[in-house]
């Protein structure tokens, strides 16, 4: 999963809070984290269902748009 790019002027975002930890199961559309931009704080939903396998950016860290912030092992579609 990458830091979202939520508009033309957004260059980076700050990780405010993770709602899931490594090993947690997540469903597509469930809130995964909260970020803050220069204009607004927003909750970001997971684009995938699966298991959080790695958190690459910690709370308080400023991350450029589209940089990886977490890894989610996707569930297979059976």
Précis, in short:
The protein is mainly beta.
Features:
single chain; 78 residues; mainly beta; OB fold (Dihydrolipoamide Acetyltransferase, E2P); 4-stranded antiparallel beta sheet; 3-stranded antiparallel beta sheet; 0% helix; 44% strand; globular
Architecture overview:
This protein has a four-stranded antiparallel beta sheet with strand order 4-3-1-6, with no helix packed on it. A three-stranded antiparallel beta sheet has the order 2-5-7, with no helix packed on it. By secondary structure, it is mostly beta strands. The protein has one domain (12-74): RNA polymerase II/Efflux pump adaptor protein, barrel-sandwich hybrid domain (OB fold (Dihydrolipoamide Acetyltransferase, E2P)), CATH 2.40.50. It is built from no helices and seven strands.
């Amino acid at each position: 999963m990458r830091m979202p790019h939520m508009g033309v002027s957004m260059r980076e975002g700050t990780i405010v809070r993770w709602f899931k930890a490594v090993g947690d199961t997540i469903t597509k559309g469930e809130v995964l984290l909260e970020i803050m931009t220069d204009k607004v704080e927003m909750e970001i939903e997971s684009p995938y269902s699966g298991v959080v396998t790695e958190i690459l950016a910690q709370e308080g860290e400023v991350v450029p748009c589209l940089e990886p912030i977490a890894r989610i092992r996707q569930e297979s579609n059976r």
